């Protein structure tokens, strides 16, 4: 609730992506089945594992983007309240500037 709950849905999105990653983290190798008329009794499922890893990486990228947007928004709210007293560290200033080049402050 409140006046500034615009990031609530992005939190749901990040949570859903994190949950998907938990499911994708299940080892592909435990689902191997015999192949070649039972001559090959263990198949590594390396390709399947690689595909799952790629999806996990994509999801993590999205989660981090959401976290960075929320952090930048928080910095802006803090600056509105504290003005010049809201100082940022050098690394934080740099990250904030990069984020705000792409995504402006969300008013509503």
Automatic annotation (TrEMBL):
<keyword id="KW-0456">Lyase</keyword>
<dbReference type="GO" id="GO:0016841">
    <property type="term" value="F:ammonia-lyase activity"/>
</dbReference>
<protein>
    <submittedName>
        <fullName>Histidine ammonia-lyase</fullName>
    </submittedName>
</protein>
<dbReference type="InterPro" id="IPR001106">
    <property type="entry name" value="Aromatic_Lyase"/>
</dbReference>
<dbReference type="InterPro" id="IPR008948">
    <property type="entry name" value="L-Aspartase-like"/>
</dbReference>
<dbReference type="Pfam" id="PF00221">
    <property type="entry name" value="Lyase_aromatic"/>
</dbReference>
């Amino acid at each position: 609730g409140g006046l500034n709950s615009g990031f609530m849905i992005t939190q749901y999105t990040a949570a859903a992506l994190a949950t998907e990653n938990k499911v994708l983290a299940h080892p592909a190798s435990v689902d191997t089945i015999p192949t070649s008329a039972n001559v090959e009794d263990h198949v590594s499922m390396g390709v399947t594992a690689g595909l799952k890893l790629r999806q996990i990486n994509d999801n993590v990228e999205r989660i981090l983007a959401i976290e960075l947007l929320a952090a930048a928004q928080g910095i802006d709210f803090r600056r509105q309240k504290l003005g010049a007293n809201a100082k940022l560290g050098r690394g934080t200033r740099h990250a904030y500037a990069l984020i705000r080049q792409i995504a402006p402050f969300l008013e509503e």
